[in-house]
C-alpha cells in the first residue's frame, strides 16, 4: 500500500469499508458490482440502499479506503479479525459473455463497431 496506488487515491477503484461488519470489499467491474454495492449500502445502513446510483461515490453513502487513509487500510487488510473480499469471474466465461452481449444483440455490432455482419466467436477472439 505504499506510494499511493490508484485504489488509495481514487474512490472509483478504492475498496469499500464497512466498519460495522469489519469488512473491506473490493468491487470488480462486470462481476455483479451493482448488486454488491447495493448490498454494501444496505449493510452500511443507507436508508434508500436500493435507490439511486450505487456507483457514484459522491452520493451512494459508502465509505472507501481513500476516506480512512493508507495506514488504517494497510492495518485492517492485515488484521485477521477483518474480512477482505474480492469477487472475480472466470475469464473465459467473461469473454463469452462479452461476445454474446456485444456481438449477438440485434444491431449493436453495426452501430458500435461499424460492421455490416456479426462477428463469429472465432473472429472475435482473433481481433
How would you describe this protein?
The chain is α+β, with helices and mostly antiparallel strands. It is 39% helix and 10% strand. It is built from six helices and four strands, in the order ββαβααβααα. The protein has helices at 33-43, 65-68, 70-78, 91-103, 108-113, 121-126, and strands at residues 16-18, 23-26, 63-64, 83-86. The radius of gyration is 19 Å and the shape is elongated. The mean pLDDT is 85.
Comma- or semicolon-separated keywords:
127 residues, 4 strands, alpha+beta
Gyration radius, in Å? 19 Å
Q: Which stretches are poorly predicted, pLDDT < 50 over at least 5 residues?
A: none
Count the beta strands: 4
Structural class by secondary-structure content: alpha+beta
Number of helices: 6
Task: Give the CA-CA distance, first to last residue.
Answer: 36 Å
- Averaging pLDDT over every residue, what do you get? 85
* Share of helical residues: 25-40%
SSE string, helices as H and strands as E: EEHEHHEHHH
Global geometry: elongated
Instruction: Characterize the largest beta sheet: strand count, sense, and whether it forms a barrel.
Output: 4 strands, mixed
Subunit arrangement of the protein: single chain
Strand residue content:
5-15%
Strand order of the largest sheet: 3-1-2-4
Amino acid at each position: 500500500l505504499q506510494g499511493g496506488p490508484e485504489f488509495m487515491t481514487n474512490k472509483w477503484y478504492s475498496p469499500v469499508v464497512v466498519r460495522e461488519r469489519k469488512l473491506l470489499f473490493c468491487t470488480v467491474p462486470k462481476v455483479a458490482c451493482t448488486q454488491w454495492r447495493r448490498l454494501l449500502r444496505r449493510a452500511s445502513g443507507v436508508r434508500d440502499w436500493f435507490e439511486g446510483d450505487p456507483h457514484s461515490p459522491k452520493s451512494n453513502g459508502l465509505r472507501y479506503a481513500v476516506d480512512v487513509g493508507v495506514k488504517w487500510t494497510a492495518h485492517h487488510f492485515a488484521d485477521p479479525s477483518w474480512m477482505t473480499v474480492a469477487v472475480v469471474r472466470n475469464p473465459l466465461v467473461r469473454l463469452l459473455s462479452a461476445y454474446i452481449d456485444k456481438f449477438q444483440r440485434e444491431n449493436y455490432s453495426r452501430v458500435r463497431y461499424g460492421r455490416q455482419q456479426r462477428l463469429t466467436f472465432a473472429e472475435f477472439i482473433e481481433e
